[in-house]
Amino acid sequence: MVATCYECTDIGRVRPTNEDYALCFAPGVCLVADGMGGHAAGEVASSLLAHTVQSYLGTAERPWNESVLLQSVQAANTAIRAEASAFSGYDGMGTTATIFSYADGQGIWAHVGDSRLYLFRNGILKQLTHDHSYVEGLVENGSITEEEARVHPQKNVLTRAVGVEEDVLVDTGRFDITRGDVVLLSTDGLTNMLPDAKIAEILAQSSTDPSRVLVRAANEAGGRDNITAVVVVFS
């Protein structure tokens, strides 16, 4: 199989800065991060997460497994906390992290926060990651519906983030990849603007760069946050 990667990040129509970060690097790794914190702290956290993960994986023995991806996020957690301790303006900064690695027909992933990893296969879009957010907890216990969650005033409150606590709990997983699969990594600036049905429609129809088509659609829907999409097409 051949993997083609597309990535796009945009400030959106409301935010003064872009605290999202997207990175694809060899061999076969993509990630997205959505930073948080005052001033430039969110931008620093997401960038530091991305480059710490890249550096860590660059020294890790192949083939990687879920444990190696988990350790790369833990290394980023340590790096972000050290940076926050060194500079008072960065106190409390953190970031989401969604990382996807592929090789030999296998995909592995690691995840913290409310950015997402999707698999689009045979016309069906499936979310592989679980949102670590206050509102997702309300949906799980039946307090609110998925529709109510989309407009809930506390939908951006995270229950996990990289760099906030001394120890970070990281979700991991793996799946088989088949020809024709499309994998999407996105920040909540995309998924808060576009329902899954619209995302699936775009992934099914886009013959050029689907990441840019997704970001443009999110902006057209309001662009209330930074928007990032990374799309990997297997052919």
Write structural notes for this entry.
The protein is 33% helix and 29% strand. It is α+β, with helices and mostly antiparallel strands and 235 residues long. The termini are close together. Strand 5 (97-103) and strand 6 form a beta hairpin. Helix 1 (41-59) crosses helix 2 (66-86). The strands form 2 sheets. Strands 2, 3, 4, 5, 6 and 9 form a 6-stranded antiparallel sheet that branches. It has a 5-stranded antiparallel sheet with strand order 1-11-10-7-8. The chain has one domain (3-234): Phosphatase 2c, domain 1. The radius of gyration is 17 Å and the shape is globular.
Task: Name a few traits of the molecule.
single chain; 235 residues; alpha+beta; Phosphatase 2c, domain 1; six-stranded antiparallel beta sheet; five-stranded antiparallel beta sheet; 7 helices; globular
- Helix and strand composition category: alpha+beta
Helical content (DSSP H or I, runs of 4+):
25-40%
Task: Report how far the terminal alpha carbons are from each other.
Answer: 5 Å
Count of discrete alpha- or pi-helical segments spanning 4 or more residues: 7
Name the CATH superfamily classification. Answer: PPM-type phosphatase domain
Rg over alpha carbons: 17 Å
For the record, what CATH class applies? Alpha Beta
Unreliable stretches? none
Shape summary: globular
% residues in beta strands: 25-35%
Mean pLDDT: 94
Architecture (CATH level 2) name: 4-Layer Sandwich
Order of helix and strand elements from N to C terminus: EEEHHEEEEEHHEEHHHE
CATH topology: Phosphatase 2c, domain 1
Give a quick account of the main beta sheet: strands, pairing sense, barrel closure. Answer: 6 strands, antiparallel
Domains, number: 1
